[in-house]
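Final report, closing paragraph on structural work. Over the funding period we assembled a curated collection of sequence-structure pairs, and we close with a single example.
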Amino acid sequence: MAAAAWSTGRSGAMDVTRRLAEICGPPFARLAGAADDVAGRQARWVAVPGDPERAADVLRLAAAHDLTVVPRGAGTKIDWGAAPDHVDIMLDTGRLAGIGHVAGSRHGRAGNQHPHPPAPATHLGPRATADRRAVNRVATDQVVVDQVVEVGAGTPLRAAQAALGRAGLRLALDAPSPGATVGGVLAADEGGPLGHHHGDPGEQVVGVRYLNADGELVSAGDGSPGLELARLLCGSQGALGVLLSATLRVHPVPADQVWVSLPVWTPADARDLVRSVRDARLDPAAVELDLPARMRPRPQPDDPAAVAARARHPSMFRRTTPPTGAGTFTVLIEGDPVDVAERVDVLLGLFGDGATIDRSAPQWWRRYPFGPGDTALRIDAPSTDLHAALYALHDVAGGPVPIRGSVGRGVVHAALPATLPAERVASIVDGVRTVLFARRGRCVVVAAPPPVRRVVDLWGHLMSLPRLRAAKEYLDPRQRLAPGRLPGGL
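Its predicted structure, as stored:
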Protein backbone atom coordinates (compact mmCIF):
# COMPACT_ATOMS: atom_id res chain seq x y z
CA MET A 1 0.00 0.00 0.00
CA ALA A 2 2.92 2.35 0.76
CA ALA A 3 4.10 2.00 -2.83
CA ALA A 4 0.66 3.05 -4.03
CA ALA A 5 0.58 6.22 -1.93
CA TRP A 6 3.24 8.25 -3.68
CA SER A 7 0.94 11.01 -4.98
CA THR A 8 -2.21 10.89 -2.84
CA GLY A 9 -0.42 10.33 0.46
CA ARG A 10 -0.85 7.32 2.71
CA SER A 11 -4.17 8.39 4.17
CA GLY A 12 -5.55 9.32 0.77
CA ALA A 13 -4.45 6.01 -0.73
CA MET A 14 -6.05 4.11 2.14
CA ASP A 15 -9.28 6.04 1.60
CA VAL A 16 -9.28 5.26 -2.14
CA THR A 17 -8.64 1.57 -1.43
CA ARG A 18 -11.47 1.44 1.11
CA ARG A 19 -13.92 3.28 -1.13
CA LEU A 20 -13.17 1.07 -4.15
CA ALA A 21 -13.88 -1.99 -2.00
CA GLU A 22 -17.19 -0.46 -0.88
CA ILE A 23 -18.16 0.36 -4.46
CA CYS A 24 -17.16 -2.87 -6.18
CA GLY A 25 -17.16 -5.35 -3.32
CA PRO A 26 -13.99 -6.59 -1.55
CA PRO A 27 -13.19 -9.34 -4.09
CA PHE A 28 -13.37 -6.84 -6.97
CA ALA A 29 -11.11 -4.00 -5.82
CA ARG A 30 -7.40 -4.34 -5.08
CA LEU A 31 -4.00 -2.81 -5.40
CA ALA A 32 -2.61 -3.43 -8.86
CA GLY A 33 -0.13 -6.22 -9.48
CA ALA A 34 2.77 -6.64 -11.85
CA ALA A 35 0.47 -7.72 -14.72
CA ASP A 36 -1.78 -4.67 -14.39
CA ASP A 37 -0.04 -2.32 -16.79
CA VAL A 38 -1.02 -0.38 -19.90
CA ALA A 39 1.66 -0.49 -22.60
CA GLY A 40 4.23 -0.86 -19.83
CA ARG A 41 2.74 1.82 -17.53
CA GLN A 42 1.91 0.32 -14.12
CA ALA A 43 -1.52 0.91 -12.57
CA ARG A 44 -2.05 1.58 -8.84
CA TRP A 45 -5.49 0.10 -8.28
CA VAL A 46 -7.78 -2.29 -10.16
CA ALA A 47 -11.54 -1.88 -9.85
CA VAL A 48 -14.09 -4.29 -11.33
CA PRO A 49 -17.54 -2.68 -10.93
CA GLY A 50 -20.57 -4.92 -11.21
CA ASP A 51 -22.95 -2.55 -12.99
CA PRO A 52 -23.03 0.87 -14.68
CA GLU A 53 -23.94 2.66 -11.45
CA ARG A 54 -20.90 1.24 -9.66
CA ALA A 55 -18.70 2.13 -12.63
CA ALA A 56 -19.97 5.69 -12.38
CA ASP A 57 -19.09 5.70 -8.68
CA VAL A 58 -15.53 4.66 -9.53
CA LEU A 59 -15.18 7.60 -11.92
CA ARG A 60 -16.67 10.03 -9.40
CA LEU A 61 -14.21 8.77 -6.80
CA ALA A 62 -11.37 9.30 -9.27
CA ALA A 63 -12.58 12.85 -9.97
CA ALA A 64 -12.75 13.63 -6.23
CA HIS A 65 -9.13 12.54 -5.75
CA ASP A 66 -7.85 13.83 -9.13
CA LEU A 67 -6.92 10.33 -10.26
CA THR A 68 -6.65 8.99 -13.79
CA VAL A 69 -8.68 6.05 -15.08
CA VAL A 70 -7.94 3.61 -17.90
CA PRO A 71 -10.62 1.08 -18.92
CA ARG A 72 -9.60 -2.52 -19.64
CA GLY A 73 -11.56 -5.36 -21.23
CA ALA A 74 -9.82 -8.69 -21.68
CA GLY A 75 -6.47 -6.92 -22.07
CA THR A 76 -5.79 -8.42 -25.52
CA LYS A 77 -4.73 -5.02 -26.90
CA ILE A 78 -3.61 -3.32 -23.70
CA ASP A 79 -0.14 -2.81 -25.20
CA TRP A 80 -1.44 -1.24 -28.41
CA GLY A 81 -0.87 2.44 -29.04
CA ALA A 82 0.91 4.92 -26.83
CA ALA A 83 1.47 4.39 -23.13
CA PRO A 84 -0.62 6.73 -20.95
CA ASP A 85 1.19 9.38 -18.92
CA HIS A 86 0.19 7.52 -15.78
CA VAL A 87 -2.48 5.06 -14.63
CA ASP A 88 -4.10 5.38 -11.21
CA ILE A 89 -7.22 3.22 -11.49
CA MET A 90 -7.59 0.45 -14.05
CA LEU A 91 -11.32 0.01 -14.53
CA ASP A 92 -11.92 -3.59 -15.58
CA THR A 93 -15.19 -4.02 -17.52
CA GLY A 94 -15.36 -7.81 -17.11
CA ARG A 95 -18.55 -7.68 -15.02
CA LEU A 96 -20.30 -5.23 -17.39
CA ALA A 97 -21.21 -8.15 -19.61
CA GLY A 98 -24.25 -9.75 -21.17
CA ILE A 99 -26.67 -9.41 -24.05
CA GLY A 100 -29.87 -7.44 -23.82
CA HIS A 101 -32.45 -8.13 -26.48
CA VAL A 102 -32.84 -7.88 -30.22
CA ALA A 103 -34.89 -4.90 -31.35
CA GLY A 104 -35.66 -2.97 -34.52
CA SER A 105 -34.02 0.16 -35.87
CA ARG A 106 -36.12 2.01 -38.41
CA HIS A 107 -34.63 3.37 -41.63
CA GLY A 108 -36.16 4.90 -44.73
CA ARG A 109 -35.83 2.97 -47.97
CA ALA A 110 -33.67 5.72 -49.43
CA GLY A 111 -31.29 5.33 -46.52
CA ASN A 112 -32.47 8.33 -44.48
CA GLN A 113 -32.61 7.54 -40.78
CA HIS A 114 -35.64 8.43 -38.73
CA PRO A 115 -35.50 9.05 -34.98
CA HIS A 116 -36.35 5.64 -33.60
CA PRO A 117 -33.72 4.62 -31.04
CA PRO A 118 -33.54 0.93 -30.18
CA ALA A 119 -35.04 0.00 -26.87
CA PRO A 120 -32.30 -0.37 -24.27
CA ALA A 121 -31.61 -3.77 -22.78
CA THR A 122 -33.64 -4.30 -19.62
CA HIS A 123 -30.71 -6.14 -18.08
CA LEU A 124 -27.22 -7.14 -19.08
CA GLY A 125 -26.74 -10.26 -17.01
CA PRO A 126 -24.84 -13.32 -18.24
CA ARG A 127 -28.05 -15.31 -18.72
CA ALA A 128 -29.70 -12.75 -20.99
CA THR A 129 -30.72 -14.18 -24.36
CA ALA A 130 -31.81 -12.75 -27.69
CA ASP A 131 -35.51 -12.70 -28.47
CA ARG A 132 -35.90 -15.11 -31.38
CA ARG A 133 -39.25 -13.66 -32.30
CA ALA A 134 -37.64 -10.34 -33.21
CA VAL A 135 -35.09 -11.89 -35.52
CA ASN A 136 -36.74 -11.53 -38.92
CA ARG A 137 -35.97 -8.52 -41.06
CA VAL A 138 -39.20 -6.66 -41.78
CA ALA A 139 -39.61 -4.78 -45.05
CA THR A 140 -42.54 -2.62 -46.13
CA ASP A 141 -43.08 -0.08 -48.85
CA GLN A 142 -42.26 2.69 -46.37
CA VAL A 143 -39.45 1.50 -44.13
CA VAL A 144 -36.91 -1.23 -43.53
CA VAL A 145 -36.37 -2.44 -39.97
CA ASP A 146 -32.83 -3.63 -39.21
CA GLN A 147 -32.20 -5.81 -36.20
CA VAL A 148 -29.94 -4.49 -33.46
CA VAL A 149 -28.81 -5.84 -30.10
CA GLU A 150 -27.37 -4.18 -27.01
CA VAL A 151 -24.21 -5.86 -25.72
CA GLY A 152 -22.34 -5.09 -22.51
CA ALA A 153 -18.83 -3.77 -23.04
CA GLY A 154 -17.22 -6.59 -21.06
CA THR A 155 -18.92 -9.36 -23.05
CA PRO A 156 -16.42 -11.62 -24.83
CA LEU A 157 -17.03 -11.28 -28.55
CA ARG A 158 -17.14 -15.03 -29.13
CA ALA A 159 -19.72 -15.38 -26.32
CA ALA A 160 -21.92 -12.75 -27.95
CA GLN A 161 -21.57 -14.49 -31.32
CA ALA A 162 -22.44 -17.85 -29.80
CA ALA A 163 -25.56 -16.48 -28.10
CA LEU A 164 -26.74 -14.70 -31.26
CA GLY A 165 -25.90 -17.74 -33.37
CA ARG A 166 -28.58 -19.73 -31.56
CA ALA A 167 -31.08 -17.26 -33.06
CA GLY A 168 -29.50 -17.46 -36.52
CA LEU A 169 -27.77 -14.08 -36.16
CA ARG A 170 -24.26 -12.70 -35.91
CA LEU A 171 -22.41 -9.45 -35.40
CA ALA A 172 -20.30 -8.29 -38.34
CA LEU A 173 -17.32 -8.22 -35.97
CA ASP A 174 -14.55 -10.77 -36.41
CA ALA A 175 -11.55 -9.20 -34.70
CA PRO A 176 -8.45 -11.40 -34.75
CA SER A 177 -7.63 -10.94 -31.03
CA PRO A 178 -8.58 -14.18 -29.22
CA GLY A 179 -10.75 -13.56 -26.18
CA ALA A 180 -11.39 -9.90 -26.99
CA THR A 181 -14.44 -8.21 -25.48
CA VAL A 182 -16.95 -6.27 -27.52
CA GLY A 183 -15.93 -3.08 -25.72
CA GLY A 184 -12.26 -3.76 -26.41
CA VAL A 185 -12.91 -4.35 -30.10
CA LEU A 186 -14.78 -1.06 -30.34
CA ALA A 187 -12.26 0.87 -28.22
CA ALA A 188 -9.50 -0.21 -30.63
CA ASP A 189 -11.79 -0.14 -33.70
CA GLU A 190 -10.31 -3.56 -34.43
CA GLY A 191 -11.67 -4.89 -37.70
CA GLY A 192 -11.39 -8.30 -39.29
CA PRO A 193 -12.02 -9.86 -42.71
CA LEU A 194 -15.76 -9.09 -42.65
CA GLY A 195 -14.92 -5.39 -42.64
CA HIS A 196 -14.56 -5.66 -46.43
CA HIS A 197 -18.33 -5.95 -46.76
CA HIS A 198 -19.62 -4.41 -43.53
CA GLY A 199 -17.08 -1.71 -42.70
CA ASP A 200 -15.14 -0.99 -39.52
CA PRO A 201 -16.58 -1.89 -36.09
CA GLY A 202 -17.58 1.72 -35.48
CA GLU A 203 -19.86 1.55 -38.49
CA GLN A 204 -21.85 -1.22 -36.80
CA VAL A 205 -22.70 1.00 -33.84
CA VAL A 206 -26.20 2.52 -33.76
CA GLY A 207 -26.26 3.41 -30.07
CA VAL A 208 -23.98 3.58 -27.05
CA ARG A 209 -24.08 4.05 -23.32
CA TYR A 210 -20.91 5.43 -21.79
CA LEU A 211 -19.58 7.37 -18.82
CA ASN A 212 -17.83 10.68 -19.23
CA ALA A 213 -14.84 11.66 -17.12
CA ASP A 214 -17.08 12.97 -14.32
CA GLY A 215 -19.00 9.71 -14.06
CA GLU A 216 -22.12 10.98 -15.80
CA LEU A 217 -24.06 8.43 -17.85
CA VAL A 218 -24.47 9.44 -21.49
CA SER A 219 -26.76 7.65 -23.94
CA ALA A 220 -26.87 8.21 -27.67
CA GLY A 221 -29.01 6.22 -30.06
CA ASP A 222 -30.12 5.94 -33.66
CA GLY A 223 -31.02 9.41 -34.87
CA SER A 224 -29.53 11.14 -31.83
CA PRO A 225 -27.30 14.17 -32.54
CA GLY A 226 -24.81 12.79 -30.01
CA LEU A 227 -24.26 9.51 -31.84
CA GLU A 228 -21.60 10.92 -34.17
CA LEU A 229 -19.69 12.22 -31.17
CA ALA A 230 -20.18 8.93 -29.31
CA ARG A 231 -18.76 7.02 -32.25
CA LEU A 232 -15.46 8.77 -31.58
CA LEU A 233 -15.14 6.33 -28.68
CA CYS A 234 -14.42 3.69 -31.32
CA GLY A 235 -10.67 3.74 -31.66
CA SER A 236 -10.10 6.06 -28.68
CA GLN A 237 -8.79 3.27 -26.41
CA GLY A 238 -10.79 4.57 -23.47
CA ALA A 239 -9.39 8.10 -23.61
CA LEU A 240 -12.73 9.81 -24.40
CA GLY A 241 -15.17 7.83 -22.26
CA VAL A 242 -15.80 4.51 -20.56
CA LEU A 243 -18.00 2.39 -22.80
CA LEU A 244 -20.69 0.52 -20.87
CA SER A 245 -22.66 -1.03 -23.71
CA ALA A 246 -23.15 -0.70 -27.43
CA THR A 247 -26.20 -1.24 -29.59
CA LEU A 248 -24.97 -2.96 -32.74
CA ARG A 249 -26.44 -4.12 -36.01
CA VAL A 250 -26.95 -7.86 -36.29
CA HIS A 251 -27.11 -9.85 -39.50
CA PRO A 252 -28.48 -13.27 -40.43
CA VAL A 253 -25.92 -16.06 -40.36
CA PRO A 254 -25.22 -16.84 -44.04
CA ALA A 255 -26.66 -20.08 -45.33
CA ASP A 256 -23.44 -20.93 -47.14
CA GLN A 257 -19.78 -19.89 -47.03
CA VAL A 258 -17.00 -20.75 -49.47
CA TRP A 259 -13.34 -19.68 -49.36
CA VAL A 260 -11.63 -19.53 -52.77
CA SER A 261 -7.84 -19.24 -52.67
CA LEU A 262 -5.06 -18.69 -55.16
CA PRO A 263 -1.28 -18.71 -54.61
CA VAL A 264 0.44 -15.35 -55.10
CA TRP A 265 4.08 -14.29 -55.10
CA THR A 266 4.08 -10.47 -55.15
CA PRO A 267 2.00 -7.51 -53.98
CA ALA A 268 1.36 -6.74 -57.66
CA ASP A 269 -0.30 -10.15 -58.00
CA ALA A 270 -2.65 -9.24 -55.18
CA ARG A 271 -3.40 -5.81 -56.68
CA ASP A 272 -4.37 -7.37 -60.02
CA LEU A 273 -6.57 -9.95 -58.32
CA VAL A 274 -8.35 -7.31 -56.24
CA ARG A 275 -9.09 -5.41 -59.43
CA SER A 276 -10.42 -8.55 -61.15
CA VAL A 277 -12.69 -9.42 -58.22
CA ARG A 278 -13.99 -5.87 -58.04
CA ASP A 279 -14.66 -5.66 -61.77
CA ALA A 280 -16.55 -8.96 -61.65
CA ARG A 281 -19.01 -7.46 -59.13
CA LEU A 282 -19.06 -10.60 -57.00
CA ASP A 283 -19.84 -8.79 -53.74
CA PRO A 284 -17.45 -10.87 -51.62
CA ALA A 285 -17.72 -10.91 -47.84
CA ALA A 286 -13.94 -10.67 -47.47
CA VAL A 287 -10.80 -10.41 -49.60
CA GLU A 288 -7.64 -11.34 -47.66
CA LEU A 289 -3.94 -11.72 -48.36
CA ASP A 290 -1.20 -13.67 -46.60
CA LEU A 291 2.38 -13.04 -47.73
CA PRO A 292 4.89 -14.89 -45.54
CA ALA A 293 8.37 -13.52 -44.96
CA ARG A 294 10.05 -16.47 -46.64
CA MET A 295 8.81 -16.91 -50.19
CA ARG A 296 10.39 -18.81 -53.03
CA PRO A 297 10.56 -17.49 -56.61
CA ARG A 298 7.48 -17.91 -58.73
CA PRO A 299 7.56 -21.39 -60.32
CA GLN A 300 7.64 -21.82 -64.07
CA PRO A 301 4.29 -22.60 -65.72
CA ASP A 302 3.31 -26.24 -65.92
CA ASP A 303 3.57 -28.09 -69.18
CA PRO A 304 0.37 -27.32 -71.16
CA ALA A 305 -0.32 -31.03 -71.63
CA ALA A 306 -0.16 -31.60 -67.91
CA VAL A 307 -2.47 -28.68 -67.27
CA ALA A 308 -4.99 -29.98 -69.80
CA ALA A 309 -4.90 -33.40 -68.21
CA ARG A 310 -6.09 -32.06 -64.87
CA ALA A 311 -9.77 -31.47 -64.44
CA ARG A 312 -10.84 -27.93 -63.87
CA HIS A 313 -11.93 -28.89 -60.42
CA PRO A 314 -12.64 -32.57 -59.70
CA SER A 315 -15.48 -31.76 -57.32
CA MET A 316 -17.33 -28.64 -56.42
CA PHE A 317 -15.40 -28.33 -53.18
CA ARG A 318 -11.93 -29.69 -52.58
CA ARG A 319 -9.13 -29.04 -50.12
CA THR A 320 -5.69 -28.35 -51.55
CA THR A 321 -2.50 -26.91 -50.04
CA PRO A 322 -0.99 -23.90 -51.87
CA PRO A 323 2.48 -24.40 -53.30
CA THR A 324 5.21 -24.30 -50.66
CA GLY A 325 6.72 -20.85 -50.36
CA ALA A 326 3.79 -19.01 -51.96
CA GLY A 327 1.53 -16.43 -50.43
CA THR A 328 -2.24 -16.84 -50.51
CA PHE A 329 -4.99 -14.60 -51.85
CA THR A 330 -8.38 -15.70 -50.48
CA VAL A 331 -11.91 -14.53 -51.22
CA LEU A 332 -14.86 -15.39 -48.98
CA ILE A 333 -18.22 -15.76 -50.71
CA GLU A 334 -21.35 -15.88 -48.52
CA GLY A 335 -25.08 -16.14 -49.12
CA ASP A 336 -27.71 -18.46 -50.51
CA PRO A 337 -26.18 -21.80 -51.64
CA VAL A 338 -27.29 -21.43 -55.26
CA ASP A 339 -26.07 -17.85 -55.48
CA VAL A 340 -22.79 -18.77 -53.79
CA ALA A 341 -22.22 -21.60 -56.26
CA GLU A 342 -22.77 -19.25 -59.20
CA ARG A 343 -20.37 -16.62 -57.85
CA VAL A 344 -17.75 -19.25 -57.02
CA ASP A 345 -17.89 -20.49 -60.62
CA VAL A 346 -17.26 -16.96 -61.84
CA LEU A 347 -14.36 -16.62 -59.41
CA LEU A 348 -12.83 -19.90 -60.59
CA GLY A 349 -13.01 -18.62 -64.13
CA LEU A 350 -11.05 -15.54 -63.07
CA PHE A 351 -8.47 -17.44 -61.01
CA GLY A 352 -7.82 -20.35 -63.36
CA ASP A 353 -6.44 -23.78 -62.59
CA GLY A 354 -4.43 -22.80 -59.53
CA ALA A 355 -7.52 -21.93 -57.49
CA THR A 356 -8.65 -24.05 -54.57
CA ILE A 357 -12.02 -24.14 -52.84
CA ASP A 358 -12.87 -24.88 -49.23
CA ARG A 359 -15.77 -24.64 -46.81
CA SER A 360 -13.47 -23.66 -43.95
CA ALA A 361 -11.14 -20.70 -43.57
CA PRO A 362 -7.40 -20.99 -44.15
CA GLN A 363 -5.34 -21.54 -41.02
CA TRP A 364 -3.99 -17.97 -41.15
CA TRP A 365 -7.45 -16.38 -41.46
CA ARG A 366 -8.19 -13.82 -38.70
CA ARG A 367 -4.63 -14.02 -37.36
CA TYR A 368 -2.07 -11.25 -37.16
CA PRO A 369 1.38 -11.78 -38.69
CA PHE A 370 3.10 -10.40 -35.58
CA GLY A 371 3.78 -11.92 -32.20
CA PRO A 372 4.86 -10.74 -28.72
CA GLY A 373 7.87 -8.45 -28.89
CA ASP A 374 7.51 -7.68 -32.60
CA THR A 375 6.88 -4.21 -33.93
CA ALA A 376 3.40 -4.38 -35.44
CA LEU A 377 2.52 -2.05 -38.30
CA ARG A 378 -0.87 -1.26 -39.76
CA ILE A 379 -0.72 0.00 -43.34
CA ASP A 380 -3.78 1.71 -44.85
CA ALA A 381 -3.95 2.82 -48.46
CA PRO A 382 -6.33 2.67 -51.43
CA SER A 383 -6.28 -0.92 -52.66
CA THR A 384 -4.90 0.28 -56.00
CA ASP A 385 -1.86 1.81 -54.26
CA LEU A 386 -1.26 -0.63 -51.43
CA HIS A 387 1.24 -2.65 -53.44
CA ALA A 388 3.56 0.38 -53.68
CA ALA A 389 3.75 0.59 -49.88
CA LEU A 390 4.42 -3.14 -49.60
CA TYR A 391 7.25 -2.96 -52.15
CA ALA A 392 8.65 0.02 -50.25
CA LEU A 393 8.48 -1.96 -47.01
CA HIS A 394 10.39 -4.80 -48.67
CA ASP A 395 13.05 -2.41 -49.98
CA VAL A 396 13.67 -0.39 -46.80
CA ALA A 397 13.59 -3.51 -44.63
CA GLY A 398 16.13 -5.20 -46.89
CA GLY A 399 13.99 -8.24 -47.59
CA PRO A 400 10.51 -9.81 -47.27
CA VAL A 401 8.37 -8.83 -44.30
CA PRO A 402 5.32 -10.91 -43.29
CA ILE A 403 2.12 -9.22 -44.49
CA ARG A 404 -1.44 -10.22 -43.73
CA GLY A 405 -4.80 -8.53 -43.85
CA SER A 406 -7.77 -7.18 -45.75
CA VAL A 407 -6.12 -6.32 -49.05
CA GLY A 408 -9.51 -5.83 -50.68
CA ARG A 409 -10.07 -2.66 -48.65
CA GLY A 410 -6.44 -1.64 -48.38
CA VAL A 411 -5.77 -2.51 -44.74
CA VAL A 412 -2.97 -4.93 -43.85
CA HIS A 413 -0.63 -5.61 -40.94
CA ALA A 414 3.09 -6.26 -41.06
CA ALA A 415 5.61 -7.51 -38.51
CA LEU A 416 9.15 -6.31 -37.90
CA PRO A 417 11.14 -8.70 -35.69
CA ALA A 418 11.91 -7.84 -32.10
CA THR A 419 15.63 -8.17 -32.83
CA LEU A 420 15.72 -5.05 -35.03
CA PRO A 421 17.33 -2.00 -33.37
CA ALA A 422 14.93 0.82 -32.61
CA GLU A 423 16.70 3.23 -34.97
CA ARG A 424 16.40 0.70 -37.78
CA VAL A 425 12.66 0.34 -37.14
CA ALA A 426 12.31 4.12 -37.22
CA SER A 427 14.01 4.35 -40.60
CA ILE A 428 11.80 1.58 -42.03
CA VAL A 429 8.62 3.27 -40.80
CA ASP A 430 9.75 6.64 -42.19
CA GLY A 431 10.50 5.05 -45.58
CA VAL A 432 7.06 3.47 -45.84
CA ARG A 433 5.35 6.70 -44.77
CA THR A 434 7.20 8.64 -47.43
CA VAL A 435 5.72 6.39 -50.12
CA LEU A 436 2.26 6.47 -48.55
CA PHE A 437 2.08 10.24 -48.13
CA ALA A 438 1.45 10.91 -51.84
CA ARG A 439 -0.97 7.97 -52.00
CA ARG A 440 -3.34 9.09 -49.24
CA GLY A 441 -2.21 6.26 -47.00
CA ARG A 442 -0.94 5.85 -43.45
CA CYS A 443 1.43 3.60 -41.53
CA VAL A 444 0.70 3.30 -37.80
CA VAL A 445 2.83 1.48 -35.27
CA VAL A 446 0.19 -0.60 -33.53
CA ALA A 447 2.45 -2.15 -30.89
CA ALA A 448 6.19 -2.12 -30.25
CA PRO A 449 8.80 -2.89 -27.59
CA PRO A 450 9.64 -0.01 -25.21
CA PRO A 451 12.93 0.93 -26.98
CA VAL A 452 11.05 1.35 -30.26
CA ARG A 453 8.32 3.41 -28.61
CA ARG A 454 10.90 5.86 -27.35
CA VAL A 455 12.29 6.72 -30.80
CA VAL A 456 9.42 6.12 -33.25
CA ASP A 457 6.45 8.38 -33.93
CA LEU A 458 3.68 5.82 -33.51
CA TRP A 459 1.02 7.71 -35.45
CA GLY A 460 2.64 9.73 -38.20
CA HIS A 461 0.78 12.63 -39.80
CA LEU A 462 -2.89 12.69 -38.74
CA MET A 463 -5.29 15.01 -40.56
CA SER A 464 -8.01 14.50 -37.95
CA LEU A 465 -5.85 15.57 -34.99
CA PRO A 466 -7.60 18.96 -34.53
CA ARG A 467 -10.99 17.22 -34.41
CA LEU A 468 -9.65 14.66 -31.96
CA ARG A 469 -8.19 17.40 -29.76
CA ALA A 470 -11.53 19.21 -29.72
CA ALA A 471 -13.31 15.99 -28.72
CA LYS A 472 -10.84 15.37 -25.90
CA GLU A 473 -11.24 18.91 -24.59
CA TYR A 474 -15.02 18.59 -24.71
CA LEU A 475 -15.35 15.09 -23.19
CA ASP A 476 -12.37 15.05 -20.84
CA PRO A 477 -11.09 18.59 -20.24
CA ARG A 478 -9.16 17.63 -17.08
CA GLN A 479 -7.29 14.78 -18.79
CA ARG A 480 -8.54 12.08 -16.41
CA LEU A 481 -9.19 9.31 -18.95
CA ALA A 482 -6.04 7.60 -20.22
CA PRO A 483 -4.06 10.84 -20.60
CA GLY A 484 -1.45 10.61 -23.37
CA ARG A 485 -2.99 7.51 -24.93
CA LEU A 486 -4.24 9.33 -28.03
CA PRO A 487 -2.19 10.85 -30.88
CA GLY A 488 -0.54 14.16 -30.08
CA GLY A 489 -0.17 13.18 -26.42
CA LEU A 490 -3.88 13.79 -25.78
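The longest strand covers residues 242-252. DSSP finds 13 helices and 21 strands in the chain. We thank the funder for supporting this effort.
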